[in-house]
Amino acid sequence: MIRTTCKRTRFLFVLASLFIAFTTSSHAEDKLQLASAMEMFAEHRYAAGLVPLQKAAEMGDRDARRTLGLMLLYGQSLYNTEVPTNREQGLRWLRMAAGDGCEISQYMLTKLKSS
What we know:
It contains 7 helices and no strands. Helix 2 (28-42) runs antiparallel to helix 3 and helix 4 (62-73) packs antiparallel against helix 6. It starts with a helix and ends with a helix. By secondary structure, it is mostly helical.
């Protein structure tokens, strides 16, 4: 029961991050990449959605960096085998987002250190 609740909480957190990323991105190209990723995620095509999400993250979008970091951190636990879990890369993207001033990323990094 607790494990299911944790998975749901993580899933909801990632979903909320995706929504925030989509609605707060300031660059037109970032928005196009995020829109493409959101469309794929809505269709449950998570692996395909990682490609445009990573492009937006590489272009400097902090919300895309946060979302990508969380997806990589919790990949297989939330998305089965479709999204690989890569803790090192997930933390890298979260740190970049935190460095860009993303408070959610800063909070998540603090929580990850304490667990």
